[in-house]
Amino acid sequence: MKENLRKRAIEVLDANFQEGGFTIPSKGLYPFQWKWDSGFIAIGFAHYDVEKAKTEIHSLLDAQWENGFIPHIVFHSDNDSYFPGPDFHQSELHPLSSKKYRSTGMTQPPVTGFVLQEMYRIAEDKEDMLAFIKEHIDRVYDNHVYFYGNRDPYNEGLVYIYHNWESGTDNSPVWDDIWSTMNPPEYTFERRDTTHVDASQRPTKREYDHYLYLIDIAKEYNYDDARIAELSPFLVQDPLFNAMLIKSNEALMELYRIIGGNEDKIKVLNLWQIKSIENFNTKLFDDELGAYIHFDLRNNKPIRFVSSSSFSPLFANIPDPERAVILVKTMMERFGGDDKYLCASFDPTNERFNPKKYWRGPVWINMNWVLYYGLKNYRFNEIAERVKQDSIALIERDGFFEYFDCRKDSGESQRTGYGGNNFSWSAALLLDLLKD
Ligand code: DGY
Fold first, then answer.
1. What is the mean pLDDT of residues 4-14?
2. pTM of the model
3. ∠ CA(75), CA(170), CA(246), 5° rounding?
């Protein structure tokens, strides 16, 4: 059974690998290279085809801008089956954007640092992998310099995102209150996602108006970070995004120590780390909810919802052990009932929860992977094991889908895996979870 799943996962990944040296998340729906997908995909490849893992990261970093920024989508081709494509995003408006690739002018969670560390751990030939890491690690470091230098206007060690697509949790109910502060025009455009996937599983047209409007505002300022920080109606400190950055800081420090001779960079990383973890714990924890939450920097107020992002700080060793206990209690009480697979992407006890719709409730394998290692960090081994077994069970139940209904008995007669099928990171991270 396990062997069969492994084989299928490898088939999915290999089929999504493109001649240009990158891997699409899913045929049709996502025909380019996405930043955080790419990182998770490289972890999967590292288990059976190290060269592809390296190629994946190399091609992502090849699209880095001169200011260290790494875009959320690299448009390797002119594929018009996706909207909004390169002509809408117009990354060339930014004077330091890549001259080699067109891309978006927004980013995605900074996973690349800890991905390099995972690749090193998995690799059998450590020397060979270290040579690769030596060649690429400074670009990831430069990406962190970009974040702390341009996305942290109050010098808190907490960076902001200016678009919901930067969070990775695209249409989370967490953003609903921000949408209600905006009134974008009604755009006329042809949706492409809903030609690949049932509209009931995707964001609404009105949500897309907000997404497009935020891009138009950023374009008006030629993607200038300072202007965006001043004027974007969406400006959020996201716990998942910052936890990924902190985890990647830690990974870069460890890798630089292994490489040797990078004391200056280790010192800088360590200073960021101390400040980030401290302010993360004071600013982004909500005692009443017993969970980490988002902070709306534009409207200067916390956004008080529990989502799977709330638990991601476990992965980056952010809470102290007592707080970790509180966090896991919240997770089990709200998300962990026997009738559910762990872990829904949004609070199942909240009225905004929707078990079928993109980031408004379904289980995502990448978040489960983050939670699995996070729970293990704090020795919640039994719950970690449940997250792992639930992930395997969902893929066995439905296939390698993009997201899954968390309900064990959904009352549906059809399959309850949603979004893109043969989805790369579901396959890649399953390979990692199956390794022992
Ligand atoms: C989409 O098109 O929904 C993507 O996830 C944006 O990153």
1. 97
2. 0.98
3. 85
